[in-house]
Amino acid sequence: MDEEAAPERDKNGPKFHCLPHSTQGSARMGTRKKVHTFVRVKPTDDFAHEMIKYGDDNKSIDIHLKKDTRRGVVNNQQTDWSFKLDGVLHNASQDLVYETVAKDVVAQALDGYNGTIMCYGQTGAGKTYTMTGTTENYKHRGILPRALQQGETNRIIASHTMNKNSSRSHCIFTIYVEAHSRTLSDEKYITSKINLVDLAGSERLGKSGSEGRVLKEATYINKSLSFLEQAIVALGDQKREHIPFRQCKLTHALKDSLGGNCNMVLLTNIYGEAAQLEETLSSLRFASRMKLVTTEPAINEKYDAERMVKNLEKELALLKQELAIHDSLANRTLVNYDPMDEIQIAEINSQVRRYLEGTLDEIDIINLRQIQEVFNQFRVVLSQQEQEVESALRRKYTLIDKNDFAAISAVQKAGLVDVDGHLVGEPDGQGFGLGVTPFSAKPGKKSKSKKTFKEQLSSSARKEGASSPVSGKELDVSTSKTQLTPSSKEGDVKDMTIRERETSSIEPLPSDSPKEELRPPRPSTPPPKPVAFEDFKNERGSEINRIFKENKSILNERRKRASETTQRINAIKREMDVTKEALNFQKSLREKQGEYENKGLMIIDEEEFLLILKLKDLKKQYRTEYQDLRDLRAEIQYCQHLVDQCRHRLLTEFDIWYNESFFIPEDLQVALKPGGSIRPGMVPVSRIMSLGEDAQDKFSQLQQVLLPEGPDSVAFYNAKVKTEQKHNYLKTMMGLQQAHRK
Ligand code: ADP
Ligand code: MG
User: Fold this and answer.
1) How far, in Å, is the centroid of ligand 1 from the Cα of 97?
2) Nearest protein Cα to ligand 1, atom 20
3) Which ligand is nearest to the CA of 119?
4) Residue 312 has what pLDDT?
5) Is residue 138's pLDDT more than 50?
6) What are the start-end ranges of the E strands in 385-506?
7) Residues lining ligand 1, CB < 6 A?
8) Backbone angles phi, psi at 737, to 5 degrees
9) What are the distances in angstroms from CA 239 to CA 227, 233, 243?
10) Fewer beta carbons within 10 Å, N or C terminal of the chain?
11) Measured between alpha carbons, how far is 12 from 595 in angstroms, rounded to an integer?
12) What's the CA-to-centroid distance between 514 and ligand 1, angstroms?
């Protein structure tokens, strides 16, 4: 027989080696797949060549039935059938069958896709042989042991393969797969199962009956196969929504293995003998119905929460290590990244408070957590302060809603508010803004203006190595004082000259003042800045210094006046209170004695009348003084602005003068002078000497920390400063020379 003679061709022919392309690789969710159908023909010496023909592509099988001569001339009975399948396995070895039918399904199961392989056919056609194989011969082992082998779970083969199953029962092997990543780092894992189904014999009733029944539908011997058939027909019908899975145990058990998200293969086992043609036809019909069923394979992915936590912990530990390394490289060895405890938070709170008070200049940045906590504590302190202010106000005053007109008129009646609606101040002069210090004199502002000044002077003074207290005291103008407590200790106040001149702006000073020409030759080492500053004020800075002093004295005079006015207002207020009290006393006296009324007019005695007059007069005085005070305040604010401007100008001019006098070479100065090749303003002189500021800043910061701790380091410090100055000078010169050439 040719079929028998050419087993090698079938074995190695590429046609059977793989499942059609779409089933290979990763079938993603959403791609619908058909059930793959194969036919395996049991080898026999009695092969019905006349009746069974294979297509050239080995994907079809044609059945030809010899005409029933007994039926007479008119015979329209069908005699030819052609079945298209995914492959016909004829004389195929167990190896080839596994390769063709099962290998990809198993491989995909290991990737998380469920798979089902079913053997269908009449008893004796080779279902069990295909599925389980023979136990005696390793070569003849079937799909199940091979699948276990492919899944590397060899050891449980024996116990399963021994199970004998009757031809009248179904046998379902289920292999459960749970695959975790080998690297143990992936918290994702997949689960899947492979159902290997060895169905009961599919032979029909009445096979032994007359040939006339061949083409009629007969019932399965095993009822559950007919339910399986119904379920499969329903699955093949895209319009059907309900699939009758629950009709019998078989369909119920295969509920999630038929169609659905499975890779599904049906292998139909047939005889190749003429005598079995009837059942063969029936089996092939079942196969072609099965072909219509589609499935939608999808991965069963799960997350291992425990492993996920472990992985995150691992990563956290790793990042902490990384951070530690980073810190040690950046010399930040003491940084701690753990969450803050109460003590640390309290410390930050105190830092924030000190910062707000002005006693702490800056809060060092340590890490992100700390920055966040600093902001947090700012909010805490702010809301606490708000509450404190409010409760302080409440303790002292009765607060009235401005929109509550009834309350306001009640208060007006009671004399707590004057006619203009101004609240009457407290006797001690601290309430209602009467004795309040001007804004510029408040602590926050004070420290700020002080700092700006210090920054300018002390940074340059430090470069000088001046350890003596800077002459800042002289310059430390009265901004730190309130006008209510003018201090006699303050030099500025003492030597002030009272002038009514209002300086709106400071005229630019001539850069070449006559005094400059008289300047002695430049010394080899520049004098300390405090000393130089005194010189400066006597020569080039004399005019600006004069204006500065003048403005200061005007400012102080205004402050003094404001203070006096405040005191007067407070005195008036006190008297008003006394008068009011007396008035109330008179009123209550009158009420006790019984009021006299005449046609609705209230009759009061003279004493009460006088008191009312006095109160009226006092209120008038109060208003006048109050207006004066307001005007004074505006003036003070304006003067303060001028003084600040002057101070800034004085210091800037001084810096320029100092650099010109002791650092910038004379020839360069010529270039910088008006008419020179470099216009003033093109190169800010204050900048010229401070190129390479970053390094300098860093060093200054370092000094702030180290100098007070180790006075010995002063020598080193001075040397370092000198080197740096030289360096800066060279750098500046080179820059300027280049600019010159252009
Ligand atoms: P089924 O399970 O369909 O009733 P079996 O698998 O028990 O049929 O097969 C019946 C007999 O035929 C067994 O002895 C089996 O070894 C043999 N047989 C079936 N198919 C083949 C085959 N392809 N090659 C060799 N022997 C086979
Ligand atoms: Mg069997």
Assistant:
1) 14
2) 126
3) 1
4) 86
5) yes
6) none
7) 42-43, 121, 123-129, 134, 167, 201, 269
8) -60, -40
9) 19, 11, 11
10) C
11) 131
12) 126
Residue 599 in 3-state DSSP?
coil
Instruction: Tell me the DSSP string of 49-70.
Output: TTTEEE-TTSSEEEEEPPP-GG
Nearest atom (ligand 1) to Cα of 167 = 4
Three-class DSSP category at 222: coil
Ligand nearest to the CA of 126: 1
Q: How confident is the model at residue 382 (pLDDT cuts 50, 70, 90)?
A: very high
How many angstroms separate the alpha carbon of residue 264 from the centre of ligand 1? 23
For ligand 1, atom 5, name the residue with the nearest CA.
126
Select, from the ranges 306-320, 408-422, 434-448, 610-624, the one with the highest average predicted confidence (pLDDT).
Answer: 610-624
**Ligand 1 atom at minimal distance to the Cα of residue 123:** 4
pLDDT at 183 over 80: no
Residue closest by Cα to atom 17 of ligand 1: 126
682-739 tens-digit pLDDT: 444 444 444 344 444 554 555 555 444 454 555 555 566 566 666 666 666 666 666 5
Direct distance between the N- and C-terminal alpha carbons of the chain, in angstroms, rounded to an integer: 103
For domain 33-67+76-212+261-303, the question of CATH label 3.40.850.10 is answered with yes
Answer with the residue of higher pLDDT: 401 or 420: 401
Contacts 24+ apart (CB under 8 A), 394-397: 396/426, 396/431, 397/431
Q: What does the pLDDT look like over 189-238, one tens digit per residue?
A: 888 889 999 998 888 765 444 444 444 445 677 788 888 888 888 887 77
Q: Which ligand is nearest to the CA of 268?
A: 1
Q: Within 13 A of 473's CA, how many CA atoms are on the CB side? A: 7
Q: Which atom of ligand 1 is nearest to the CA of 165?
A: 2
In the chain, residues under CATH classification 1.10.287 are 538-663
Rounded to whole angstroms, how far apart are CA atoms 63 and 331? 87
The highest-level CATH class for domain 538-663 is: mainly alpha
Token pair belonging to 361: 């200049």
Output the CA 94–ligand 1 centroid distance in Å. Answer: 11
- How far from the centroid of its chain's Cα atoms is residue 2's Cα? 73
What single letter denotes the amino acid at residue 67? K
Q: How many CA atoms lie within 13 A of 334 on its CB side?
A: 2
What residue numbers does the annotated binding site cover? 121-128
- Kindly report, as residue ranges, where domains of CATH 3.40.850.10 are found in the chain: 33-67+76-212+261-303
Query: Rounded distance, CA 703 to CA 713, Å?
Result: 9
What per-residue confidence (pLDDT) applies to 376?
93
Name the closest ligand to CA 129. 1
519-543 per-position pLDDT tens digit: 556 666 778 888 888 888 888 888 8
Q: Known binding site for ATP: residues?
A: 121-128
Report the alpha-carbon distance of residue 173 to residue 198 in Å, rounded.
8
Sheet of 52-54: strand order equals: 52-54, 60-64, 80-84
Q: For ligand 1, what atom is nearest to the CA of residue 122?
A: 3
Residue 124 CA to ligand 2 centre (angstroms): 7
Host H or E run for residue 192: strand 188-198
Smallest CA separation from ligand 1 atom 9, residue: 126
132 C-alpha vs ligand 2 centroid, how far in Å? 9
